[in-house]
Amino acid sequence: MTLFRAYQEEARYFKYAFNAAGKVVEEAPLIVSPDKGILSRAMDASHIAMAVLEMPWEMFDEYEAPTEEDELIYGLDMEEVTRIVRRARVTDEFTLEAESEDEVIVKLASGGYEREFRLRSIEVEDIPDEPELDYTVEVTVVPDFVQDAVRDADLVSDTVKVGVEDGTFYFKAEGERGVVQPKVREGAEALLSFDAEENVETAYPLDYLKDMIQAAQGAESVIIRLGEDMPLELEFRIGPAGEGRLKFYLAPRVEE
Amino acid sequence: MTLFRAYQEEARYFKYAFNAAGKVVEEAPLIVSPDKGILSRAMDASHIAMAVLEMPWEMFDEYEAPTEEDELIYGLDMEEVTRIVRRARVTDEFTLEAESEDEVIVKLASGGYEREFRLRSIEVEDIPDEPELDYTVEVTVVPDFVQDAVRDADLVSDTVKVGVEDGTFYFKAEGERGVVQPKVREGAEALLSFDAEENVETAYPLDYLKDMIQAAQGAESVIIRLGEDMPLELEFRIGPAGEGRLKFYLAPRVEE
Amino acid sequence: MTLFRAYQEEARYFKYAFNAAGKVVEEAPLIVSPDKGILSRAMDASHIAMAVLEMPWEMFDEYEAPTEEDELIYGLDMEEVTRIVRRARVTDEFTLEAESEDEVIVKLASGGYEREFRLRSIEVEDIPDEPELDYTVEVTVVPDFVQDAVRDADLVSDTVKVGVEDGTFYFKAEGERGVVQPKVREGAEALLSFDAEENVETAYPLDYLKDMIQAAQGAESVIIRLGEDMPLELEFRIGPAGEGRLKFYLAPRVEE
Asked: How many interchain CB pairs under 8 A, B with C?
């Protein structure tokens, strides 16, 4: 008996999003809601980062939502999920479904054959609420910029400052060897939108950002939300028309 | 003086076949037969797998067979062979030849230059006979399927069951983390032929299969032969018209 | 205030040259000359190899040479430089500039964003003179040949002989496992020029050559200069019309 089923022609929307989420959080719930679609919210073990995944039913080509009124909740070992999605080709057909409350099934189909992965559902702890934050800055950039910026910063430090100053959105890392500063100015084609109430600059741990930007490969754009000494929010739109979302929240680096 | 010489315009037929064979067996004879072409048969050190290579003269664009009536026999350190063929570009021209009974020469030519590798012939032990087995199942699949199936199975176990059940050919691996089951059904484009007298399922060690499927890259199709509790046979056709063959035999996993 | 500035539309000319130089020498001066362009000459720590980089102003699309009569001299930690250029895409726009005598700035721009790397200038020791040598052999080959030859040789030995014999330019490595001999004959398309006063053969340490050939990817051709028991000279032409040069000198292997 099928409890729920969600099918998408292109695995690439899930490959990179699940991979990035699985590098940030160790385990996560999979909340299958009759009306809202498939959701997940989890914090990493050290409570520095949160991953929020929203996959509304509309982002699937075919789906069977649960018929019960209540949500179905599964627990995922995200390292396992990461290992599975890494085996997906971007052109594979992707199915997420369940026949029982004990396991989740991922199916990858291509070229006339099918690969089925059954994942035992694990116990998950309390599901965290998503924070509500009053950001003063929201910028949208091409995924390449964030990927380059984070990897460049990694050359000299394990901390990166992210900020805006007078129409420029920048990353800045300083180390003994030198300073790395990737930036993009208002009006540049790589800066898709820019909305800043004030100039801000806040430091974040680079390790988490390196994991989060793994999602950039499957995304058309990346939204970054900032405020002085506030968490950073990274939002990737996924799905054929960007119906789904993968959001990360990252706490600022506390100065030692 | 040339004792034998075999030339093929495309190194790719040999690159992947020798690479896979060299990962399975440590050393192997190179039997140069006046009429049958170039052959090899060897077991791995733990006698779990056998590699059989058949390269009839017809698969070469040019050749000089030995003029003597007897076969020439060289001994190859297959790790060395693997290292050489890994250096071949798929578009290189490939020559296998010998000027003496002491060494085998591999030549790779491309873009107007030539790279010559002279391999000292080593002592090889008795050459094993090829087993004659009464399989009850023979299926032909696209190489991608076998590659995906073996690598998927590797996510959860070091053993994989290979079987057929009612028109479906499948691999199945079970571990603590879950179950992985790649499969292809009769009628699917990835299943090129299907011939099964009975349903069978036998377990094999995954490590060997991971090495063997390295040959898939240079092959058009893969033939798999099975029988209950019998060795698995994997056959890759190589050469411009599939004149050559690389076959592997793999003993079932003994339950502990 | 800009002390000097050199801009090139394509980072690829610098990516591979700086990468190779940075693998051979640990630190190097950057000599910015009002008339000659940007130069560098440095020996590796064990004084076996020298790297010489010549980037005349003409190889840049835009430049501001120093206005003073004297040269500006910066010291580069070449490991840092290597890490930066490895982050460059071949299609990035490349700028090398300085605003002070304390640091050098590398800018990579692409897709509407800019990445700025500020490198602290370090103390460099005496700048070596370039040797003047009377070679008896000069050959020009396609970069692929040198790359293949060095990597092939690496299969069997840590020393390689480089030589010419009767119209053939060759590399030769001998080990317990066999002999590897890449070669190219006069008249072959891969041998762009051949000028030999005598047959020579000299042995060189392979480790250095493996680092040096990293520059081949950005080059159209490689000039090799040789003489019996003399250093080997490898010259890569870089820039849109080959205006720039990266030269390596490598001392012969002393027989033990």
From this structure: 63
Distance (Å, rounded) from C-alpha B174 to C-alpha B119?
A: 43
Given phi > 0 = left and psi -120 to 50 = alpha, else beta, which region is A112?
A: left
CATH node for B137-250: 3.70.10.10
Helices (H) and strands (E) in chain A, counts: 4, 18
Vertex C229: Cα angle to C175 and C212 (nearest 5)? 65
Q: How far is CA B136 from CA A242, B142, B161, B227, B229, in A?
A: 50, 20, 16, 5, 11
Chain CA centroid to CA C170, Å: 21
Structure tokens at A6: 């969600």
Verify whether the Cβ–Cβ distance C191 to B113 is below 8 Å. yes
- Burial class of residue A210 (count of CB atoms within 10 Å of its CB; 0-12, 13-18, 19+): middle
Evaluate if residue B131 carries a pLDDT over 90.
Answer: yes
Q: Looking at per-residue confidence, does A67 or B208 come out higher?
A: B208
- Strand partners for B77: B27
The shortest C-alpha distance from B112 to chain C (Å) reads 5
Is 70 exceeded by the pLDDT of residue C42?
yes
Residues of A in contact with B142 (CB under 8 A): 111-113
In the three-class reduction of DSSP (H, G, I as helix; E, B as strand; rest coil), residue A82 is classed as helix
Q: Which residues pair with A146 in a beta bridge?
A: none
Give the CA distances from residue C124 to residues B71, C27, C40, C43, in Å, rounded to whole numbers and listed in that order.
66, 7, 11, 11
R_g of chain B, CA atoms, integer Å: 19
**Residues 6 or more apart whose Cβ sits within 8 Å of residue C184:** B112, B113, B114, C141, C145, C168, C169, C170, C190, C191
Q: Domain boundaries in chain B?
A: 4-120, 137-250
Query: Cβ separation of B115 and C148 shorter than 8 Å?
Result: yes
pTM of the model: 0.91
- Establish whether domains C4-120 and C137-250 are of one fold: no
**Which candidate, A154, A247, A136, places its Cα nearest to that of A202?**
A136
Identify the weakest region by mean pLDDT among A33-37, B68-72, B110-114, C112-116.
B68-72
Q: Which pLDDT belongs to residue B256?
A: 55
Q: Considering only CB atoms, which chain B residues are within 8 Å of C190?
A: 111-113
Local structure of B246: helix, strand or coil? strand
Residue among A84, A76, A99, A64 nearest A28 (CA): A76
Return the bridge partners of A4, or none: A98
**Average pLDDT for residues B92-119, to the nearest whole number?**
96
CATH 3.40.50.800 fits B4-120, yes or no: no
| Structure confidence at residue C111 (pLDDT) | 84
Ramachandran angles phi, psi of C174, nearest 5°: -125, 135
**Chain C residue at shortest CA distance from A151:** C87
Mean pLDDT by 10 residues, chain A (256 residues): 95 95 97 97 96 97 92 96 95 96 96 94 92 97 96 96 97 94 96 97 97 93 96 95 96 81
Rounded CA separation A118/B132 (Å)? 37
Contacts of C142 in chain B (CB under 8 A): 111-113
Indicate yes or no: CB of B80 within 8 angstroms of CB of C177: yes
Are the beta carbons of C146 and C162 closer than 8 angstroms? no
Comparing CB atoms, the residue among C177, C178, C188 nearest residue B113 is: C188
ipTM for the complex shown: 0.90
Query: Nearest C-alpha of chain C: how many angstroms from A175?
Result: 10
| C-alpha distance from B117 to closest chain C C-alpha (Å) | 5
| Contact list, B190 vs chain A (CB under 8 Å) | 111-113
Contact residues, chain B, for A84 at CB < 8 Å: 155
Tell how many helices (H) and how many strands (E) occur in chain C: 4, 18
Q: What is the pLDDT of residues B25-38, one digit of tens each?
A: 999 999 999 999 99
Each residue's pLDDT tens digit, A188-204: 999 999 999 999 999 99
